[in-house]
Write a sequence for this structure.
């Protein structure tokens, strides 16, 4: 979702990389704060509940993003990102400790390596799957909305991706360029909101799983319950 978010800022809203980075900065700052606070909260609250709460907040952020449109959607998108991004912190900050703490000390290294591998695999799969869904929705929606009379190269680029449409529009006259950009940006936003819906469903399922599988884990330093 992060990649789709930054693409929206630069290709739909037309922001420079610097301005896009400044819009991302508040969410990143909140992530740092939440990542620092999560282990402290875990001394008083069961880690499973913290992780589940973070996932539920992620669902709220994703649902906010589902309401974004291609025109004037920047405030809502940034607000959704600021809700969503720091809510990732409990899972990031607590999962590795939970994995390492569940095995004998002589297996801590292997458990840590396994946790890191699973985390990297999950991130890679998430980028691939969510990005593929966004791209598929874009291509399904853009096919019938591009104007007629486009040069073949520009039409092919526009159908491939929003980045291709933006690049192709730079070679076209003003009115024709606008006729390419408007549907391309709408199609990309449709892909973004569809991906957000799917991500919200996944996060909701993960929240239920966290409560069921990690609910018995006590706060840090506590005694496990059966």
């Amino acid at each position: 979702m992060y990649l789709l978010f930054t693409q929206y800022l630069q290709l739909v809203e037309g922001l420079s990389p610097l301005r896009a980075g400044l819009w991302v900065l508040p969410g990143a700052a909140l992530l740092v704060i939440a990542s620092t606070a999560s282990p402290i909260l875990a001394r008083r609250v069961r880690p499973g509940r913290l992780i589940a709460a973070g996932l539920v907040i992620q669902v709220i952020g994703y649902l906010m993003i589902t309401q974004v449109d291609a025109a004037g959607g920047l405030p809502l998108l940034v607000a959704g990102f600021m809700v969503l991004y720091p809510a990732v912190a409990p899972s990031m900050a607590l999962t590795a400790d939970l994995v390492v703490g569940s095995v004998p000390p002589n297996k801590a290294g292997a458990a840590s390596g396994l946790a890191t591998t699973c985390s990297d695999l999950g991130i890679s799969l998430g980028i691939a799957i969510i990005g593929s869904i966004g791209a598929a929705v874009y291509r399904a929606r853009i096919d019938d909305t591009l104007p007629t009379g486009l040069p073949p190269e520009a039409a092919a680029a526009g159908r491939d991706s929003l980045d291709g449409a933006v690049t192709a529009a730079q070679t076209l006259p003003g009115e024709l360029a606008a006729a390419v950009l408007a549907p391309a940006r709408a199609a990309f936003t449709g892909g973004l909101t569809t991906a957000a819906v799917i991500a919200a469903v996944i996060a909701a399922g993960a929240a239920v799983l966290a409560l069921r599988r990690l609910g018995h884990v006590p706060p840090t330093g506590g005694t496990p319950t059966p």
Q: What stands out?
A: The chain has a mean pLDDT of 88. DSSP finds nine helices and no strands in the chain. Residues 2-214 form a domain with the Growth Hormone; Chain: A; fold (CATH 1.20.1250.20).
